UniProtKB/TrEMBL annotation:
HAMAP family: MntP_pump (MF_01521)
Transmembrane residue ranges: 12-34, 41-66, 72-94, 106-129, 135-154, 166-184
UniProt record similarity statement: Belongs to the MntP (TC 9.B.29) family.
Keyword set includes Transport: yes
Keywords: Cell membrane, Ion transport, Manganese, Membrane, Transmembrane, Transmembrane helix, Transport
Gene: mntP
Keyword Plastid set for record: no
Source taxon at top rank: Bacteria
Protein task: Probably functions as a manganese efflux pump.
Subcellular localization(s) per the UniProt record: Cell membrane
Name of the protein described by the UniProt record: Putative manganese efflux pump MntP
Its membrane topology: Multi-pass membrane protein
């Protein structure tokens, strides 16, 4: 294979990974507005990176056999999950107790990572149709999304220090808005 073709494919994959990772950054920014320790931020970034690897891989594998209909379904599921996470965070911010209703730990982290990476599945479907190199694609997607998630979480953590108790409501609004954006593309 020609070197320029390989470089072109890698550059294209980095651009796609950056576009996909921006939702992880945005959602990380919203989730970073709740009180998180640095260790939690590390785990969240790694988990989202892993999800951004296996979701497109599943999409690539399935994309070689199925139609583009799954891409739409994955986007709808991701949007609904983000709406629910946003609503839970907004409700939690108005409660008297200090613990947020949903936290990116355990099952909450699984739901969070899944909602962020569902669009990667739909991208994987299209990449499967074009027979992209799966190991290169998922490695780039995982790395870029992990770095962008960390950036969003750390920035959100800084903003949380400024906003205090209202930061969780703002984070919920961000997640809710992003869920609406997935459901109503405009």
């Amino acid at each position: 294979m020609d070197t320029t073709v390989i470089v072109g494919e890698v550059v294209t994959l980095f651009i796609m990974a950056f576009a996909l990772g921006m939702d992880a950054f945005s959602i990380g920014l919203g989730m970073g507005l709740i009180r998180l320790r640095l260790r939690q931020i590390l785990y969240i970034g790694v988990t989202i990176g892993i999800f951004h690897m296996w979701m497109p891989l599943a999409g690539i594998i399935i994309g070689r056999f199925l139609s583009d209909q799954f891409g739409t379904i994955a986007t709808i599921i991701g949007g609904v999950l983000l709406l629910l996470l946003g609503i839970q965070m907004m409700i939690s911010s108005f409660k008297k107790d200090e613990e947020p209703m949903i936290t990116p730990v355990g099952f909450g982290l699984f739901v969070f990572a899944l909602s962020v990476s569902l669009d990667s599945f739909s991208v994987g479907l299209s990449l499967g149709i074009y027979k992209v190199h799966p190991i290169v694609a998922i490695s780039i997607f995982g790395l870029v999304s992990m770095l962008l998630t960390w950036a969003g979480l750390l920035l959100g953590r800084r903003v949380q220090e400024w906003l205090g108790k209202y930061s969780e409501a703002l984070g919920g609004c961000i997640l809710f808005a992003f869920g609406i954006k997935l459901l109503l593309p405009f």
